[in-house]
């Protein structure tokens, strides 16, 4: 069951892409560009996968696979925290 959320990122989009790649880091992989792409990876509680589209300052994230014990809200919080890091 897919779940979606949107986060706002008014900054530079190539920088954003680097942040997304750093967040997924050695736990997985990111494929895509500054308009759209996909990601997947593993955590101690299970694997995750999804895709993103970037429209202006909005990043629309669709989670297509996530660990049962992890809520979409938790993923969104982690995503937002990662984007706020320099």
Short structural summary:
The protein has 86 residues and is of the alpha+beta class. The protein contains two helices and five strands, in the order βαββββα. It has a single domain, classed as 2-Layer Sandwich (TATA-Binding Protein).
Question: Could you characterize the architecture of this molecule?
Answer:
This protein is an alpha+beta fold. It has a single domain (3-84), classed as Kinase associated domain 1, KA1 (TATA-Binding Protein, 2-Layer Sandwich), CATH 3.30.310. It has helices spanning 13-24, 72-84, and strands at residues 3-8, 28-32, 36-43, 46-55, 58-65. Strands 1-5-4-3-2 form a five-stranded antiparallel β-sheet, with helices on one face. A hairpin with a 2-residue loop joins strand 3 and strand 4 (46-55). The radius of gyration is 12 Å and the shape is globular.
At CATH level 2, the architecture is 2-Layer Sandwich
Radius of gyration: 12 Å
| Quaternary structure classification | single chain
Q: How confident is the prediction overall: mean pLDDT?
A: 87
CATH class: Alpha Beta
Strand order of the largest sheet: 1-5-4-3-2
